[in-house]
Every structure is written in C-alpha cells, then in structure tokens.
C-alpha cells in the first residue's frame, strides 16, 4: 500500500466548463484546460484562504469565494504540458465530514450523485487512515456515511 489512497481507488471528479475539480480528505484539486502552448508567464493565479482567481493571457477563467477555507501557504499551481493548470489547495478542516459540495460558494456544485460518491470516497479514505493495515481502495460503502460516517473512536480497542 505504498501509493496514496486516491491513486489506488481513483478520484470522483466534478466536471466544469473549464475542466474539473475533485477532493481528498486533505486537499482540493482543480484542473483547468488552457490553450495549447500556454506559458507560465501567461498565467496569473492568486490563492487566498477563502478565494481564488485564475486568468490566462488576460482572460479570467476562475474567480470567487471558495466553498470552505484553505491553508494559504500550502496552495500551489503548476502548468502541465503547456495545456493544463493544476491547482492544489490544502483544506483547513480535514475530516471526512468536510466534503465540499461545490468549488466556489455558489458555483461549480457537484450534482447530487457526484456529491454522494465524493462523500463515500472521503469516508473510505477516513477508514483507511484509521485502519492502516487494511486496504479500502476497492471497497463499497452503504448505510450511514454522510458527514464522514459513523464515529467509532469511543469504542474500546
């Protein structure tokens, strides 16, 4: 189990007009398609704890207030193959109950089915962390998994 959980189990992406976004317990990933041949000097990206702004060649692609807070100093962006910008934001609240319903407060919301799949994924990721000897990457979950699933922390070991 050397690969991270999301690499073994896949991601649950939410499609947008400019690309997609997805999340893990700790991070939010944003992938923005840009015109081929884009250079880093063409990109203006501002990452705040609650806001984001991205423009390429003077054209605003993404701007607004994030769904929840992030750790400002941990946010990064990279330009890949001169056609994709990948932004990684570190969540401030990193528990399975903190499943972002949308990327921005009132934009790019996950549809109900995708939101359900995201919540299942975060709950399984939480189980994986609590039980490192088991591999939950291919597991299915049903029942009470909203808000991170049941809390077993008070049970005696």
Descriptive account of the structure:
The protein has 2 helices and 10 strands; from the N terminus they run αββββββββββα. The protein is α+β, with helices and mostly antiparallel strands. It has one domain: Immunoglobulin-like, CATH 2.60.40.790. The chain has a 5-stranded antiparallel beta sheet with strand order 1-2-3-8-7. A hairpin with a 3-residue loop joins β7 and β8. The longest helix has 19 residues. The radius of gyration is 17 Å and the shape is elongated. The protein starts with a helix and ends in a 27-residue tail after the last helix. The mean pLDDT is 88. Keywords: Acetylation, Centromere, Chromosome, Cytoplasm, Cytoskeleton, Kinetochore, Phosphoprotein. May regulate the LIS1/dynein pathway by stabilizing LIS1 with Hsp90 chaperone. Interacts with LIS1. One of its GO terms (biological process) is protein folding. This is NudC domain-containing protein 2.
Can you tell me the CATH class? Mainly Beta
Number of strands: 10
Which CATH architecture is right?
A: Sandwich
Strands in their spatial order, largest beta sheet: 1-2-3-8-7
Shape: elongated
Q: State mean pLDDT (0 to 100 scale).
A: 88
CATH topology grouping: Immunoglobulin-like
Could you list the spans in which at least 5 consecutive residues all have pLDDT below 50? none
Order of helices and strands: HEEEEEEEEEEH
Tally of distinct domains: 1
**Tally the helices: what do you get?**
2
Q: Main beta sheet, described?
A: 5 strands, antiparallel
Computed structural class: alpha+beta
Give the proportion of residues in helices.
10-25%
Q: Over the alpha carbons, how many angstroms does the gyration radius reach?
A: 17 Å
Estimate the strand proportion. Answer: 25-35%
Distance between the termini: 24 Å
């Amino acid at each position: 189990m050397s690969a991270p959980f999301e690499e073994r189990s896949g991601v649950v992406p939410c499609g947008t007009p400019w690309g997609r976004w997805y999340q893990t317990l700790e991070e939010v990933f944003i992938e923005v398609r840009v015109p081929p041949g884009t250079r880093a000097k063409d990109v203006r990206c501002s990452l705040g704890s609650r806001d984001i702004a991205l423009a390429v060649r003077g054209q605003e692609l993404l701007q607004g207030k994030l769904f929840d807070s992030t750790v400002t100093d941990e946010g990064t962006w990279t330009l890949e193959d001169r056609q994709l910008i990948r932004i990684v934001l570190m969540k401030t609240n990193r528990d399975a109950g903190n499943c972002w319903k949308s990327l921005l407060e009132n934009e790019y919301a996950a549809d109900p089915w995708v939101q359900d799949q995201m919540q299942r994924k975060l709950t399984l990721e939480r189980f994986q962390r609590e039980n490192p000897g088991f591999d939950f990457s291919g597991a299915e979950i049903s029942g009470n998994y909203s808000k991170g699933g049941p809390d077993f922390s008070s049970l005696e070991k």
